[in-house]
Amino acid sequence: MKLLNFGSLNIDYVYDMPHFVQGGETATATARHVYAGGKGLNQSIAAARAGAQVLHAGAIGPDGAFLTRLLQDAGADTSALLQVQEASGHAMIQVTPEGQNAIIVYGGANHCLTEAYVQSVLRQAEPGDLVLLQNETSQTAQIIAQAADLGLRVVFNPSPFPAHPEQLPLERVDTFILNEIEGALLAGMPEEQDGDVIFDALRSRYPHAQIILTLGSRGVTAWLGGQRYDQPCFTVRAVDTTGAGDTFCGYYLAGCCQGQAPAQCLRAASAAAAIAITRPGAAPAIPARDEVESLLK
Ligand code: RIB
Asked: What mean pLDDT is reported for the chain?
């Protein structure tokens, strides 16, 4: 079983800030770094480092060669990547001394996916494969619909949260992986809600779906195979939380592809995310499998 990821690829411009810049304020960054990122790329790298077979589909511009190389170095198959003239997607990320982030994403090449491209990539899917997508590329509705038509299991990480979720065929999603803010929005409730309230609302709104709700330092609550799971988080000192959710997602799905039990997948994914937040950057912070095994021991 492989993971077919229709995923964004970004160049991350990361600014170390004393605090998040406010409206009307000019603030000075204490450092700037350029890293590989994009929720899709991060998730593929995590899944590949965890040992899964990963086919990454997406688009990059002339400036994106290093993104392709990084995916390849992690062991992901990049043969389906689309090379376009539009500049690669990028993100501007503020990181505070507490390791919290605020992100602006610009789609760029990620928005050059076409329906025909989606169709051609899905021809490489085999029964049982997992199809993963986020909300940083074009064609999200088509990817969900076409993959579901082929009988493939669709995993949707609705991040950033879609402006018009009602336009997506969400009833065809097999598994949602999302954080509290995305969960509340998807459940149609105010953002400031208790995790359990959001979880129950998602379950009643999408009774057919599996749900993995990440709750930051309060761990993860999931509904998988008709059963509830609660996975506490591993306590570490946060340096940069960027990409922690992506690391969790990639490691979790790698475990699924490898036939591991849900509790085992959630535990390994939480350990991987914990390691990722102890390091700067998104993609560069994603741990190798043996580092995760060491923490689990
Ligand atoms: O989830 C973190 C990612 O979000 C960053 O790498 C950035 O590119 C944005 O896509």
From this structure: 97
Verify whether ligand 1 is closer than 6 Å to residue 89 (CB atom): no
Any atom of ligand 1 within 6 Å of the Cβ of 41: no
Q: Which atom of ligand 1 is nearest to the CA of 41?
A: 6
**Ligand 1 neighbour 103 (Cβ under 6 A):** yes
Atom of ligand 1 lying closest to residue 134 CA: 10
For the segment 63-86, what is each residue's pLDDT rounded down to a tens digit?
A: 999 999 999 999 999 999 999 999
Does 241 sit in the ligand 1 pocket, CB within 6 Å? no
Residue 242 Cα: closest atom of ligand 1:
2
**Rounded Cα gap, residues 244 and 274, in angstroms:** 7
Task: Round to whole Å and give the CA distance between 270 and 232.
Answer: 8
Any ligand 1 atom below 6 A from CB of 182: no
**pLDDT tens-digit map of 124-135:** 999 999 999 999
Supply the angle between the helices 180-187 and 195-205 in degrees, to the nearest 10.
40
Phi then psi for residue 272, to 5 deg, are: -65, -40
C-alpha span between 282 and 15 (Å, rounded)? 13
- Closest among 261, 156, 273 to 212, alpha carbons compared: 156
